[in-house]
């Protein structure tokens, strides 16, 4: 029975899941964090039990050593459940990687080279890959890229109307992110509807702290809202999403903001946090219900943008067969789903209020009315399972 280890590494932490592939069941999961800082911490969950340790963790290699110790001490045994592959999440695959790829030294060099485009993400992933390739030297390692699913976009969707020479020199184009989730959800939607993926026009809203929406035609991404970086598109927990770029020039000239200050303003101090001082939709919903105008405006700006993208992608696809919501906000907040699709009855979209309110966590639920031409679904995403599936497919 095949088992795959999934690893998601950042520069100072990594998470892992050991997944048994036949039932897509998590055998164990865990976290190693504060690598390279004062005191590091590990967490290992096996069965119903959770084990925690604190220790100095100077680097990722030490972290993988601690992970192996946790498996040896608390189980499950990696001899009994020996992984056939390690699947690594890598944020940026640039225009080079259009599918999950077995990691070789050359692939590592390419991931390193792409750090120019993802300075906050690719270096950490690479540290995790190097350490994991040492810890699990006898099995193949596979890189699964957040960008790869969107490499099917046509040039008119991924090209910015920017001076061509400048764009080419600096590799500026739309890459798109959250691809692993969009792929997983669009495939789950097809299975749920019992229809071939190749026949479906889909729109998937991934609404977590980071948020993006993708238009998918026959299983292929044809348009997505995140762009050169994950900053573009929808309003997010702390990111602006779409913005007139001249605002940056204005702030540089008038407010003398530096590049780092602008970066932090756009990525960390804006979005729902910037509008209402909080990024958790539970808080914002409660405040809006209690009459807080700032919270209400933040929700209105958020859902206004969702509707704009729904309309745009319906136009790009020529209508849709299914629209899905996923991730923290998409799976848990009925009023956001309702507002996102309000006014789209003309396009055959009708959300049933009772089904929408009754959608249960962790289950695929159809929330559209029986007479809705477009099926509207809530689908729990599972990026780890998707990474494991793709890793297994590469090595099989
Ligand atoms: P990430 O992008 O960090 O993976 P998630 O997909 O976990 O994010 O989504 C996190 C966000 O989802 C939270 O900031 C919160 O706004 C929202 N969220 C999660 N659970 C709930 C819930 N039960 N009710 C309302 N909002 C929720």
Describe this entry's structure for a reader.
The structure is a single chain. The protein is an alpha/beta fold. 39% of the residues lie in helices and 20% in strands. The chain contains 15 helices and 14 strands. β1 and β2 form a beta hairpin. The longest helix is centred in the last third of the chain and has 25 residues. The chain starts with a strand and ends with a helix. The model has no long low-confidence stretch (mean pLDDT 97). Bound molecules: adenosine-5'-diphosphate. The site of adenosine-5'-diphosphate has 13 residues, from α10 and α12. Belongs to the acetokinase family.
Summarize it.
The chain has 396 residues and is an alpha/beta fold. Helices cover 39% and strands 20% of the residues. The strands form two sheets. An eight-stranded mixed sheet has the order 5-4-3-2-1-6-8-7, with helices on both faces.
Placed side by side, the strands forming the largest sheet appear as 5-4-3-2-1-6-8-7
What bound compounds does this protein have? adenosine-5'-diphosphate
How much helicity do the residues have? Answer: 25-40%
H/E topology pattern: EEEEEHEEHHEHHHEEEHHHHHEHHHEEH
Describe the sheet with the most strands: 8 strands, mixed
What would the average pLDDT be, to the nearest integer? 97
Number of helices: 15
GO molecular function: acetate kinase activity; ATP binding; magnesium ion binding
Pfam family, one: Acetate_kinase
Subunit structure: Homodimer.
Organism: Candidatus Microbacterium stercoravium
């Amino acid at each position: 029975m095949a088992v795959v280890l999934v690893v998601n590494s950042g520069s100072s932490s990594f998470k892992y899941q050991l997944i048994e592939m036949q039932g897509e069941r998590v055998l164990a999961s865990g976290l190693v964090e504060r690598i390279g800082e004062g005191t590091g911490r590990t967490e290992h969950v096996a069965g119903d039990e959770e084990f925690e340790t604190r220790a100095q963790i100077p680097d990722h290699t030490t972290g993988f050593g601690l992970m192996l110790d946790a498996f040896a001490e608390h189980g499950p045994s990696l001899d009994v459940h020996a992984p056939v592959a390690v699947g690594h999440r890598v944020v940026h695959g640039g225009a080079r990687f259009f599918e999950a790829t077995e990691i070789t030294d050359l692939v590592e060099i390419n991931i390193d080279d792409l750090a120019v485009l993802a300075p906050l993400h690719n270096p950490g992933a690479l540290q995790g890959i190097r350490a994991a390739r040492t810890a699990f030297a006898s099995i193949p390692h596979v890189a699964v890229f957040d960008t790869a699913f969107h490499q099917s976009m046509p040039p008119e969707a991924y090209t910015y109307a920017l001076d061509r020479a400048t764009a080419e020199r600096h590799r500026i184009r739309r890459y798109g992110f959250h691809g692993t989730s969009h792929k997983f959800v669009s495939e789950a939607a097809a299975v749920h509807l019992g229809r071939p993926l190749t026949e479906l026009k889909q729109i998937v809203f991934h609404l977590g702290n980071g948020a993006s929406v993708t238009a998918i035609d026959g299983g292929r991404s044809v348009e997505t809202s995140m762009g050169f970086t994950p900053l573009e598109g929808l309003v997010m927990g702390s990111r602006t999403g779409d913005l007139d770029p001249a605002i940056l020039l204005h702030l540089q000239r008038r407010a003398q903001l530096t590049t780092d200050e602008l970066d932090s303003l756009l990525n960390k101090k804006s979005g729902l946090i910037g509008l209402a001082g909080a990024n958790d939709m539970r808080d914002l919903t409660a405040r809006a219900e209690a009459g807080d105008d700032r919270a209400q405006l933040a929700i209105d700006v958020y859902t206004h943008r969702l509707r704009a993208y729904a309309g745009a992608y319906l136009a790009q696809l020529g209508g849709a067969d299914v629209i899905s919501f996923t991730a923290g906000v998409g799976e848990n907040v009925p009023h956001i789903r309702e507002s996102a699709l309000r006014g789209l009855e003309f396009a055959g979209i009708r959300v049933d209020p009772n089904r929408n309110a009754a959608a249960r966590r962790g289950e695929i639920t159809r929330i559209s009315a029986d007479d809705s031409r477009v099926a509207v679904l809530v689908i729990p995403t599972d990026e780890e399972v998707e990474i494991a599936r793709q890793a297994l497919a590469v090595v099989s």
